[in-house]
Design goal:
It is a single chain. The termini are far apart. By secondary structure, the chain is mostly helical. It has a single domain, classed as c-terminal domain of poly(a) binding protein (Orthogonal Bundle). The radius of gyration is 28 Å and the shape is elongated. Helices cover 78% and strands 0% of the residues. This is Large ribosomal subunit protein bL20. One of its GO terms (biological process) is translation. Binds directly to 23S ribosomal RNA and is necessary for the in vitro assembly process of the 50S ribosomal subunit. It is not involved in the protein synthesizing functions of that subunit. One of its GO terms (cellular component) is ribonucleoprotein complex.
């Protein structure tokens, strides 16, 4: 079995790790072992952060929609339920953008949701009377 010398491959992989660690504090950017630990840790945080970003944006959108709903005299949950009852399928990102930039359009959506809820409630009451 031939002897394996890892000179160029080892140097390349170490350079790659140290390049990723550039800008880290003290030995974390200079010594391979410390850089390796710091890079691994950083990559774990980056992975988690990509998942958290989705959660954080959804929470932000819900807060913005809720604020506009309250201004229109409706709670967030009733607004979303009313939109579903009206057959409108807008996602939270679009609703938050409309709430932030076009108040008149959002008020129209809120009125549409209110009317759909009223129709649904009257249908429920009619069924109860029978």
């Amino acid at each position: 079995m031939p002897r394996v010398k890892r000179g160029t491959h080892r140097r390349a992989s170490r350079k790659k790790v140290l390049a990723r660690a550039s800008g880290y504090f003290l030995t974390k950017s200079k010594l391979y072992r410390a850089a390796m630990e710091a890079v691994d840790r950083g990559l774990k945080f980056a992975y988690v952060g990509r998942k958290r970003k989705k959660r954080d944006y959804r929470r932000l959108w819900i807060v913005r929609i809720n604020a506009s709903c309250r201004a229109a005299g409706l709670s967030y949950s009733k607004f979303v339920h009313g939109l579903k009852a009206a057959g409108l399928d807008l996602n939270r990102k679009v609703l938050a953008d409309v709430a932030l930039h076009d108040d008149a359009a959002f008020r129209n959506l809120a009125e549409l949701a209110k009317s759909a809820l009223a129709v649904k409630e009257s249908a429920r009451l009619a069924l109860e009377k029978e």
